[in-house]
Amino acid sequence: MAAVRVEEVLAAAEEQEAEKRRSITVEKELELEFDLGNLLALDRNPPAAAGLRGAGPRREALLRALARDNTQLLVAQLWELPAERAGGAGGPLVAQLPEPTFRLPREKPPPRPRPPTRWEQFARLKGIRKRKRTSLVWDEQAKEWRRRWGYQRAGGDPARAWLAEVPEGADPEEDQFARLRREKRERVARNELNRLRNLARAHRAGTTVPAVPLHPTGHQSREELGHVARVARVSTASLGRFQPRLPKESAEPPSRSSGKKRRFEPLLGNLAAERSRQLELLRDMGSKKPVLDITRAVNKQLRQEEAEAAAAKGKKQSRRGKRGRRQ
Amino acid sequence: MRPLTEAETRAVFEKLGRYIGENIQLLVDRPDGTYCFRLHRDRVYYLSEKLLKVAASIPRESLVSLGTCFGKFTKSQKFRLSVTALDFLAPYAKYKVWVKPGSEQSFLYGNHVLKSGLGRITENTAQYQGVVVYSMADIPLGFGVAAKSTQECRKVDPMAIVVFHQADVGEYVRNEDTLT
């Protein structure tokens, strides 16, 4: 009797093992193609055509089974990859994915070329080609190579020009320095206007407007760099919530309405919730303090030593006093 | 008037924590009612919910002060504790300094506390720790920052500063116009 029962137990155990193995083995005619860098599995097996025709719960069940089988195969492939423990022993097991091979198609249509600017049209018409200029120019006065423009340029600092000749045919009473300044201002304004016009033309033509470049170009202003840094911080999967902050960056998380208007909690909102939030904040602040404060520990030690020294001195004095009195 | 944002709450609690440590919980979570902090014109006020409901119906331009003013935020968003918070700091103070009767008046005029005027000081006070200053009769006079730790206080000469003055009750008379 006992032998039969043992056989029964063994048979039951084997049945269970087979069941478990059935759930993790998948039979396919054609092998799947895997691109583990993209976590992609391509199944070229023709599906059971009869079951997939027409909507219904049977179709759902078939599709679900198909998805489960393919996912099983993909996960089995992932487990084959070389893995290591991230963050030392006890950390999560991390697989090293290979480089992706499948080229993903474009999400948006490619950008159209921007329309030529007014100067570009004119230059094309006249056949003017771009000349590459040297960055340094020989300055005869200083007898050395100086920049073409900018700091210590050839030809001296225009702000310190102390002489402005009155051109022929000009009004002798006119202030030449003021005229030069005004003309420079007008030139700058005209340039800026033309740049904006070109941008507007490109925008109207539907092409992508050249936006603030997100990679460092070398001539970006402080505000542009700040904007770029903010965009970089938010371009993570969790929208920048867990990015470490730079030492001098403010600790305010960017509010959803991070534009012109600040939004605050309602004045008489849920006071109990406010209180619990403040208590949690206190708990967070309290937990960050280091448990062992070095200076206080050192001071405590010094205090103990001083107390011992004082006690010893007191004993010595009393002993000396007693000896002296004994005559 | 509006509630404090998280950064502002953190700044206020850090400042308060320097004087009363973890006893801030007793200010936030009181058994005898719900009390809260509100910001009005860069000043932080501490008031009960009952008072808040009443104050909410006063127009912003006409509202001068509400509850107890704990301090204000400066233009560069730093929090500065004012003497009007003394009533709430004194009972929960962790580190206390008692001042001799002779130099009480000097402290109340806004001067720092010298070693010669120091009566008692709490044991194991660290340097630059926030302290509350009392007279010998245990009346809170103001608060300040310990310039020397208790250890060093014993060794310095009598003319050295031991407590930097930050606020005292004499300001109620001196700065009568600007206190809210």
TrEMBL record, chain A:
<dbReference type="InterPro" id="IPR007023">
    <property type="entry name" value="Ribosom_reg"/>
</dbReference>
<protein>
    <recommendedName>
        <fullName>Ribosome biogenesis regulatory protein</fullName>
    </recommendedName>
</protein>
<comment type="similarity">
    <text>Belongs to the RRS1 family.</text>
</comment>
<dbReference type="GO" id="GO:0000447">
    <property type="term" value="P:endonucleolytic cleavage in ITS1 to separate SSU-rRNA from 5.8S rRNA and LSU-rRNA from tricistronic rRNA transcript (SSU-rRNA, 5.8S rRNA, LSU-rRNA)"/>
</dbReference>
<dbReference type="GO" id="GO:0042273">
    <property type="term" value="P:ribosomal large subunit biogenesis"/>
</dbReference>
<feature type="region of interest" description="Disordered">
    <location>
        <begin position="304"/>
        <end position="327"/>
    </location>
</feature>
<feature type="compositionally biased region" description="Basic residues">
    <location>
        <begin position="313"/>
        <end position="327"/>
    </location>
</feature>
<feature type="region of interest" description="Disordered">
    <location>
        <begin position="90"/>
        <end position="118"/>
    </location>
</feature>
<dbReference type="GO" id="GO:0005730">
    <property type="term" value="C:nucleolus"/>
</dbReference>
<dbReference type="GO" id="GO:0030687">
    <property type="term" value="C:preribosome, large subunit precursor"/>
</dbReference>
<feature type="region of interest" description="Disordered">
    <location>
        <begin position="239"/>
        <end position="270"/>
    </location>
</feature>
<keyword id="KW-0690">Ribosome biogenesis</keyword>
<comment type="function">
    <text>Involved in ribosomal large subunit assembly.</text>
</comment>
<keyword id="KW-0539">Nucleus</keyword>
<dbReference type="Pfam" id="PF04939">
    <property type="entry name" value="RRS1"/>
</dbReference>
UniProtKB/TrEMBL annotation, chain B:
<dbReference type="InterPro" id="IPR015947">
    <property type="entry name" value="PUA-like_sf"/>
</dbReference>
<comment type="function">
    <text>Required for proper 34S pre-rRNA processing and 60S ribosome subunit assembly.</text>
</comment>
<dbReference type="InterPro" id="IPR016686">
    <property type="entry name" value="Ribosomal_synth_fac_NIP7"/>
</dbReference>
<keyword id="KW-0539">Nucleus</keyword>
<dbReference type="InterPro" id="IPR005155">
    <property type="entry name" value="UPF0113_PUA"/>
</dbReference>
<dbReference type="GO" id="GO:0003723">
    <property type="term" value="F:RNA binding"/>
</dbReference>
<keyword id="KW-0694">RNA-binding</keyword>
<dbReference type="GO" id="GO:0005730">
    <property type="term" value="C:nucleolus"/>
</dbReference>
<dbReference type="Pfam" id="PF03657">
    <property type="entry name" value="UPF0113"/>
</dbReference>
<protein>
    <recommendedName>
        <fullName>60S ribosome subunit biogenesis protein NIP7 homolog</fullName>
    </recommendedName>
</protein>
<dbReference type="Pfam" id="PF17833">
    <property type="entry name" value="pre-PUA_NIP7"/>
</dbReference>
<dbReference type="InterPro" id="IPR002478">
    <property type="entry name" value="PUA"/>
</dbReference>
<feature type="domain" description="PUA">
    <location>
        <begin position="95"/>
        <end position="170"/>
    </location>
</feature>
<dbReference type="InterPro" id="IPR036974">
    <property type="entry name" value="PUA_sf"/>
</dbReference>
<dbReference type="InterPro" id="IPR055359">
    <property type="entry name" value="Nip7_N_euk"/>
</dbReference>
<keyword id="KW-0690">Ribosome biogenesis</keyword>
<dbReference type="GO" id="GO:0042255">
    <property type="term" value="P:ribosome assembly"/>
</dbReference>
<dbReference type="InterPro" id="IPR040598">
    <property type="entry name" value="NIP7_N"/>
</dbReference>
<comment type="similarity">
    <text>Belongs to the NIP7 family.</text>
</comment>
